[in-house]
Model the fold of this input.
Amino acid sequence: MQDATVLTSAFGPTLEPVRFGEFLRDRNLISDEQWIAALAKHWSSPRRTRIGDTIVDCGILSIEVVEAEARVFHDDLDVIEVTPRSEKTTLPIMPIARA
Done:
């Protein structure tokens, strides 16, 4: 779930998604340079993780700050992060032969 910003255009208001890294940058918790460095590490990593985890791994913010800001980002909702099926390593279920 992403927050959205309402932008007004010639066609009326539109919703634009705001990603968590941009949210942290817009709240002046990370600089443009830190945001770009975290994005570079995030997208070049062989295993995709959440950007908040990357920001913590880079030492930019503490886990406590990232978790607190994630609660604000999600409007203090109880949110469960779900790993997309494409990021899971799964094995097919093999039937068990019965004797």
About this structure: Strands lie at 3-9, 12-18. The first helix runs from residue 20 to 26.
